[in-house]
Amino acid sequence: MLSNARIAVLGAGKMGETLISSLLQAQVVDKKHLVATTKHGQRAEMLAEKYGIEATTDNRQAAVGADVLLLCVKPQVVLEVLSEIAESVDVGQLVVSVAASVTTKLIEDGLQKEVPVIRAMPNTPCLIRQGMTGLCAGRFANDEQLQRADFIFKQVGRTVCVDEKHMDAVTGLSASGPAFIYVVIESMAEGGVKAGLPRSVATELAAQAVLGAASMVLETGEHPALLKDAVTTPAGCTIDGLMELEEGGLRVTLIKTVFKATQRASELVESN
Ligand SMILES: NC(=O)c1ccc[n+]([C@@H]2O[C@H](COP(=O)([O-])OP(=O)(O)OC[C@H]3O[C@@H](n4cnc5c(N)ncnc54)[C@H](OP(=O)(O)O)[C@@H]3O)[C@@H](O)[C@H]2O)c1
């Protein structure tokens, strides 16, 4: 889907570099078709050397002639970069932004033309290609362009396409989600430590239990409640554990956690 497409990664920090390295590793783009930009020349030099790609601090130069512009700068830098590149961008290019909370309309307005824009919300497990990315299309993007962006993020994990009105919920659930689950893993491991397990063993057991359970949900397609019931032997130990979990209010806490993070996601651009 990207064959011979020229890709410019504007703002090649953690997320930008992850996309560069994954696209190259998957061999879906040729290094001579990739250009990256950064704020600091030293980082651009490092990226050029590490990946054998062109890297620069000049966004406008990088944007010229690119088929896909991957906007990977921090949300508060987006408008500045858009004003730099606006003149050189045309409606035949595809802009894909990963900036949290930045709407497609804000990008379209910043470019002052009917450029197709896709907004993406990846998460940190993309770093190890186990990510989850929510994508939505702006007013001027068609299905084919959405699929092209989808293909890019499939190189770093799973993807889901949603209406833009759901992007804050994607942020609150899957972009913030790993942080919530780290707390769950840490706490389950503490339970193992309390029961006498060495901490490293307890952490491995907890993390693998979470990974295995998540894989069961994704691979069997079963409802999590049915999978939970299958583990819960009558008068066994799991039901005793579940009773403690319900008494502690984990279920309601997690619902409120995701909802609060979603609400905050909708405020981020205004507060930057
Ligand atoms: N990290 C994640 O897991 C994650 C998840 C979801 C969404 N995102 C989104 O991804 C975006 C980037 O996040 P990040 O964690 O990758 O941040 P980051 O590591 O700080 O990367 C930002 C990059 O932007 C570059 N930059 C700053 N100003 C620039 C400019 N005027 N022109 C060109 N490049 C410029 C910086 O260059 P220097 O390195 O030279 O300073 C840096 O490489 C954010 O909008 C964030 O909301 C990130």
Describe the structure.
This protein has 272 residues and is an alpha/beta fold. The chain has two domains: 161 residues, Rossmann fold (3-Layer(aba) Sandwich), CATH 3.40.50.720; 97 residues, ProC C-terminal domain-like (ProC C-terminal domain-like fold). 54% of the residues lie in helices and 13% in strands. The protein is built from twelve helices and eight strands. It has an eight-stranded mixed beta sheet with strand order 3-2-1-4-5-6-7-8, with helices on both faces. Strand 4, helix 4 and strand 5 form a beta-alpha-beta unit. The mean pLDDT is 96. It binds NADP nicotinamide-adenine-dinucleotide phosphate. The site of NADP nicotinamide-adenine-dinucleotide phosphate has 28 residues, from helix 1 and helix 4.
- Helix coverage percent: 40-55%
Which ions and ligands are bound to the chains?
A: NADP nicotinamide-adenine-dinucleotide phosphate
Distance, first to last CA? 35 Å
Helical stretch tally: 12
Assembly annotation: single chain
Q: List the helices and strands in order.
A: EHEHEHEHEHEEHEHHHHHH
Q: What would the principal axes of the Cα set say about the shape?
A: elongated
The helix/strand class is alpha/beta
Topology (elements, then pairings):
Layout: E1 7-10, H1 14-25, E2 34-37, H2 41-51, E3 54-56, H3 59-63, E4 68-71, H4 78-85, E5 94-97, H5 104-111, E6 117-121, E7 131-137, H6 143-154, E8 157-161, H7 167-175, H8 177-194, H9 199-220, H10 224-231, H11 237-247, H12 250-271
Parallel strand pairs: 1-2, 1-4, 2-3, 4-5, 5-6, 7-8
Antiparallel strand pairs: 6-7
Helix pairs in contact: 4-5, 7-12, 8-9
This protein binds NADP nicotinamide-adenine-dinucleotide phosphate.
